Amino acid sequence: MVSEQAKVAVFGAGMIGIYVGGLLARDADVALIGRPSMLDALADGVRLTDVDGLDETISGFTRTADPAALAGADLVLVTVKSMQTADAAAAIAAHAPPGALIISLQNGVSNPDVLRAALPGRTVLAGMVPFNVAQRGPAHFHRGTGGGLVVEDSPALAPFEPLIGRSFPLTKSSNIVGVQWGKLLVNLNNAVNALSGVSLAEQLRQRDYRRSWALSVAEGLKLVEAAGITPVDAIAMPLKLMPQIMSLPDALYGYVMAAAGGGKVRVDPHARSSMADDLARGRPTEVDYLQGEVVRLAQRLGRKAPVSARMVQLVKAAEQGAPPIPAKALYAELKAAKRG
């Protein structure tokens, strides 16, 4: 049973976790569990801003690296990187109450299953965060794109719907696998943005970077449909039209996007992908859980995913210090990979 003021633990409080947990802290008892390098600067609160004009400083939450802060949680939001999911599950098993609801707000499609396998008897729901968050200062986090939260529909979610809904538009989905794959296909641009070395807005202004994304999405769409999965559009642009729209000449692309956005394109000029942030900080990326997931799906179907496979190689090289790749060169690399 949920107490009058829900206790929420955000496990793996990076940029997404701090932003989500920070907003929830206006109405809940929130513990942000993460690296001191991220949380120490929040001693006097966290400033949260967004592309829609929000500018609020929030305090009163707990900051800690100790997973024992999971004790007593009614709701656990898992926001660790995909490669850390097994460790997160072990911490939850050791410290969180058996009745706590667990929601994965992670990239990729396999993390909820990893959590369920490691946490038998507990309720684990898949969720999806469509927006981008950038760190603009040690204690300043900015949502640079639009969107609310999508969570797998379940009766277990009902006690928390008012809390979440006060901070985010909340959509409950009966096709969460389709939601996850739809977001993953969009997130294939994370690697393109990371390899570009420029902001998301600047990357999207360059046709060959967009066409690189288009090749990735087109490849992924064919495989997802072959697997019998119905992907759900994660952004306003329909997935099935993305390869064509992204491949348009710059002027026509800008016109289409402005028309679709009602006169404004909702991409903050400072936004960049989480993978770009990981490269900038010298950390391993999640490419194995994005493009790598497409490659594994192709293998299960007895097919190939040469564009995604090449992107994995290029990002791995960037992790080892390879420089950014200009748009024309990246598109040429991916076209060559597709041709075989």
UniProtKB/TrEMBL annotation:
It holds the Pfam family ApbA. Residues 175-318 form the Ketopantoate reductase C-terminal domain. Pathway: Cofactor biosynthesis; (R)-pantothenate biosynthesis; (R)-pantoate from 3-methyl-2-oxobutanoate: step 2/2. Gene3D superfamilies: N-(1-d-carboxylethyl)-l-norvaline Dehydrogenase, domain 2, NAD(P)-binding Rossmann-like Domain. Keywords: NADP, Oxidoreductase, Pantothenate biosynthesis. GO terms for biological process: pantothenate biosynthetic process. Its EC number is 1.1.1.169. It is an enzyme of class 1 (oxidoreductase). InterPro entries: 6-PGluconate_DH-like_C_sf, 6PGD_dom2, ApbA, Ketopantoate_reductase, KPA_reductase, KPR_N, NAD(P)-bd_dom_sf. GO terms for molecular function: 2-dehydropantoate 2-reductase activity; NADP binding. This is 2-dehydropantoate 2-reductase. It comes from Sandaracinobacter neustonicus.
